[in-house]
Structure formats: structure tokens, C-alpha cells
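Ops channel
N.P.: pipeline sanity check, posting one input/output pair.
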């Protein structure tokens, strides 16, 4: 039985607008310590998240202790602009809730990265070593390195990215495989640096080969919509304050076992090779 309903703290504006246009029906796909993922029958995704996770491109943020204790996987979910029901009982009230805008800023063309911040970002261009020496992990890592290099070269030379994206999509393990996380980081850099022409193609190609959650993040990224932690990183880099940049990078790096670091590898590699990274200003 679902507990007493409560009011959300905030909701992603694209999600709210989507619910206003078309009611949502789906099911609880996964429940975790700080979040709950809900998959719609039409492919839409809703993430219920606690403050430690933060706002996201398709999230409803809630500030309640142990909010997921009364729900289980596969429970039916319905949602509209009024609220979200689980198992035909109102679970979250959305009336009057504040919305959060996931659209990331873009850097002014006059921006030049400080040398100290470029050096800091460069530390995150490398892939993390696997936690164990299982041969399959090493094989996957070697493939990730090769295919990531292929993507970066294609972007740098203005060549087709199709093969590189297809080869990276879905590569790895977990809800968001490493290849997808890398692509997400690259997409964040493409958006920030105003190189947006390839974003839709990356999402279209990758979404066919990966998980529902990864696909939702990549689709959002193609529109410039990213989680709150990416907004903090963008603002930190723009501020040129090295301490703030380090804090923002560390926040992303701590996401999952590898997800944050994989995304940072894609982001930093592309960003440092862009004109914003190449034309570094001395500090």
C-alpha cells in the first residue's frame, strides 16, 4: 500500500510540459537508495530523486525521508500535471510545484580557459582502471579507448561520426553503460562550445543500442538539457575559479562506480580540443 501522498519540491520544466500535453502511463522500473526510475509505455522516463541526486532533465525532486519504502518494481504509474499516482493511489502532488530548467548555458565566443583550469580538466581525460583484473573488463576498456579516440578524431576533422557513435553506444555495463556516459560528456561539451549540429545524430544513433535510462539522458542532451551537476560545472568553468571548478568536477566524478568519470573523460577531451580549450589564457 502506498503511503500518504506528499508534495514535490521541484519538477523539470520539459517533464511538466510533457505531462500537460499528454498523460503518462508506465511502471516502476527500478528503486534505489536515492532515486526511483519510472518507464512510460511511450518511452518517456521519469526519475524521482532526492536532493543528494539533484534536479535532472526528466526528474521530480522530493524532500522526504525513505519515500520509496511503500513502492515496489512493476507497480503501475500514472501521471499528469496534477500529480503522480502509484498503484492507483496519489503518491506525489504536483500542483503549484516549482519547475527547474535543465537547459544548459552556452559559453560566449570570447571565452578563454585559464591555464590552471585546463590542467585540472586534463587530469580527467583518461579512463579509470577497472576495479578488478577480469579479462572482460580489460577488453571492454580497450574497446572504449579505441572507439572514443575514433569519435574525437571524427569530430575534430569534421568527418562522419556515425560509426564511432554506434560502436560506443551501449558499450559497457549497468543502467548507463560507459560508452553512453562518454557520449553524454561529449554532448555536454558540444553544447557548451556551440557545436550543436551533431547532437541530434548522436542521440538518434545511440538510443537504438542502449538502455531506457541512457536513451532518456541522451535524448535530453541533444536538446541541451543536462542534470544539475553539469550546470554547476559549466558555471564554475565560466567563473574561472579553480577551487570551484575542482569542486564541480569532483561532484560529477563521484556519480556511480564509473559513470561520472566516464562522462568527464568525454567532456574534458572534447572541451580541451575545442577553441575554448586550445586558446588558453595565462593566469
Amino acid at each position: 500500500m502506498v503511503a500518504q501522498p506528499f508534495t514535490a519540491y521541484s519538477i523539470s520544466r520539459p517533464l511538466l510540459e510533457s505531462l500537460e500535453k499528454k498523460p503518462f502511463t508506465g511502471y516502476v522500473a527500478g528503486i534505489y537508495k536515492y532515486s526511483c526510475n519510472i518507464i512510460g509505455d511511450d518511452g518517456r522516463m521519469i526519475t524521482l530523486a532526492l536532493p543528494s541526486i539533484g534536479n535532472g532533465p526528466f526528474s521530480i525532486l522530493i524532500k522526504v525521508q525513505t519515500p520509496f519504502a511503500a513502492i515496489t518494481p512493476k507497480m503501475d504509474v500514472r501521471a499528469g500535471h496534477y500529480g503522480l499516482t502509484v498503484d492507483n493511489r496519489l503518491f506525489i502532488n504536483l500542483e503549484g510545484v516549482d519547475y527547474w530548467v535543465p537547459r544548459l548555458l552556452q559559453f560566449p565566443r570570447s571565452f578563454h580557459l585559464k591555464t590552471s583550469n585546463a590542467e585540472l580538466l586534463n587530469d580527467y581525460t583518461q579512463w579509470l582502471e577497472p576495479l578488478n583484473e577480469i579479462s572482460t573488463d580489460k577488453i571492454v576498456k580497450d574497446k572504449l579507448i579505441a572507439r572514443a579516440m575514433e569519435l574525437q578524431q571524427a569530430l575534430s576533422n569534421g568527418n562522419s561520426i556515425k560509426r564511432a557513435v554506434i560502436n560506443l553506444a551501449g558499450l559497457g555495463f549497468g543502467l548507463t553503460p560507459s560508452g553512453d556516459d562518454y557520449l553524454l560528456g561529449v554532448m555536454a561539451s558540444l553544447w557548451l562550445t556551440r557545436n550543436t549540429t551533431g547532437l541530434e545524430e548522436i542521440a538518434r544513433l545511440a538510443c537504438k543500442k542502449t538502455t531506457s535510462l541512457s536513451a532518456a539522458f541522451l535524448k535530453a542532451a541533444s536538446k541541451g538539457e543536462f542534470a544539475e551537476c553539469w550546470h554547476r560545472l559549466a558555471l564554475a568553468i565560466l567563473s574561472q575559479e579553480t577551487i570551484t571548478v575542482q569542486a564541480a568536477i569532483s561532484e560529477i566524478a563521484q556519480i556511480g562506480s564509473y559513470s561520472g568519470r566516464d562522462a568527464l573523460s568525454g567532456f574534458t577531451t572534447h572541451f580541451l580540443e575545442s577553441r575554448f580549450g586550445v586558446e588558453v589564457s595565462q593566469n
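N.P.: looks fine end to end. The longest helix spans residues 135-157.
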